[in-house]
Amino acid sequence: MQQWTFVIAAYAVTLLGTAAVSWLSWRAMRRAEAQAEQLADRA
Predict the structure, then answer these.
(1) CA 42 to CA 11: how far, in whole Å?
(2) Hey, is 43 helix, strand or coil?
(3) Which residue intervals of the chain are DSSP H helices?
């Protein structure tokens, strides 16, 4: 494997990992906001 192939692959893995963590965090935040909204409506 050439050096630049490895560098490009490393950047791709990093970008995909960052996108996946961001998306999962966003989903968790939306779920938590919905639960907080339900609790606020009960009070």
Answers:
(1) 47
(2) coil
(3) 3-42
Structural tokens at position 18? 């960052």
Note the pTM of the prediction, 2 decimals: 0.75
In whole angstroms, give the CA distance from residue 10 to residue 42. Answer: 48
In whole angstroms, give the CA distance from residue 43 to residue 32. 17
The pLDDT assigned to 43 comes to: 72
Buried b (16+ CB within 10 A) or exposed e, 4-34: eeeeeeeeeeeeeeeeeeeeeeeeeeeeeee
Residue 16 has pLDDT above 80, yes or no: yes
